[in-house]
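Changelog note: in this version the structure field was regenerated for every chain. One regenerated record is shown below for reference.
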Amino acid sequence: MKIAVIGTGYVGLVSGACFSEFGFDVTCIDKDVAKIETINQGVMPIYEPGLAELVARNINAGRLRFSNDLSAAVTHADAVFIAVGTPTRRGDGHADLSFVYAASEELAVHLTGYTVIVTKSTVPVGTGREVAGIIEKANPDANFDMVSNPEFLREGAAISDFMRPDRVVVGAETETARDVMRALYRPLFLIETPILFTNLETSELIKYASNAFLAVKISYINQMADLCEAVGANVHDVAKGMGLDNRIGNKFLHPGPGYGGSCFPKDTLALVKTAEMHGSNVSIVDAVIRFNQDRKSKMVDRVIAAMGGSVADVSIAILGLAFKPETDDMRDSPSLDIVSALTALGAKLRVYDPKAMEEARSLLPYGVTFCGSAIECLKGAAAAVVVTEWNEFRALTPAQFATEMVGNVLIDLRNVYEPSVMREAGFHYVSIGR
């Protein structure tokens, strides 16, 4: 079978590479000529562990190619995946579907023979039917079925998530389309992966409902962390006690400075807007959005309090900029709010992230000092703030902090270190919920 994937962003690039690893003939298409040239040279536009090697292996095997030629790829494809961005629309908070609609209209005229059109992009309920309408209008003779197949890829673990997923969700309404999707995911049938077939609307909503629930879970444990500080409890023990209940589970019960990234911020907002359009109430999700934004500001307050009420002219080391480890993604990362606020208050910031430095240079305010390592970042700092829990930072010892820093304030927003160890080493150690 031949597959065309429109869009070489995070979802399109990973999905295309993984489908080719399954043994299918895959062409990934993007309008960005420079981006395609760079990928063909073996340089990935994103950092994802194992992706460069996976792409190179399948290009060399002749199963994977990257092109700007939409016509050639779509004309010969059995399935076309739409994997373009759906960012938050400026002004009203709805998902911006302009890229999805444009891709749908452009691919329509190149359809020949029966083709399954699949939305892999995260899209609000009803988008699949709108896309089908666009294709029918642009090409009344098109022979196609519309399918929704949302992605559930975690940045930093995307390849394993695709190859060994918890489940695959497919919104398809004809047996022919379901047969095509079964064939595409046959390698997962062999390892008994649950594959759920639904209608289009259900599939589209499953994606948003899943991400919103995880965002709720993150915000809940953050609120419990605040309560732990007020009553003298330990949030890690609370989370462990909760997570041992199989009805709750132990994932996403890690306190921190709030969620960020490419999915949770925009998807929770899009879900709220969709509910509002249909007169439905998702007030829990709405409250989570507001709490998460406020939490980032509260992290700045923690730093100010730890420094005695002012950070003006204080040298502070920021360890970690990406929204989570094993990615260079800084979209809605807590670091953006924290760095911007501290800089505005007169702090002299030194920043370092193992993978996100290039991205950070275009996003962080003027005056920030970019460092080449964690050790360099700590040099001469009166305080250090851990924002992202990279393993590289876990390996730092109290002696290294003490040697490089001129002060003894360590604000650990990810609970990377043991409080007793740091306090015994002479640090004024601040963590979350313990």
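Spot check on this record: DSSP finds 19 helices and 14 strands in the chain. The first helix runs from residue 10 to 21.
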